[in-house]
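User: structure tokens for this one?
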Amino acid sequence: MAALEEIEPLISEKCSEFGVELYEARFFRAGSRSILRIFIDRSEGVSIADCEQVSNALSVLLDVENFMGGRPYTLEVSSPGIDRPLKTEKDFRRIYGRNVVVHFKKPDGTNATGSGTVEQCEGGILRLSCDGTPVELPLDTILSGKEQIRFK
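Assistant:
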């Protein structure tokens, strides 16, 4: 029986065959059900057809790899959505020049919230411009981050 950690590289490889990247894979229990939730992404966005193709291919892959040892589970494949959480350097680099809200832990251990425009994210440091003032936050202090979506 393959565990998620063992099969995740294969899932990522299969996703890349369809021109999408594996954004996140989660396996969890919801009541009496087990769910494998796969989020896929690419810069120009993900369509329903992309999700369907990847889902069909992953279903075969997971059967071949004996994921869950034949026990039932639900496979869900979708986009992380417009309000996706920002976690990694890659996530923040993808939205250079856009506004974000981040919740982070200050050096004194208290939590704080800040917002600004993403200027850079490299070497584990997120650099924001907050009303023209540069602010640097280590990624390991960020509890959560989201892009501020503004509609015109």
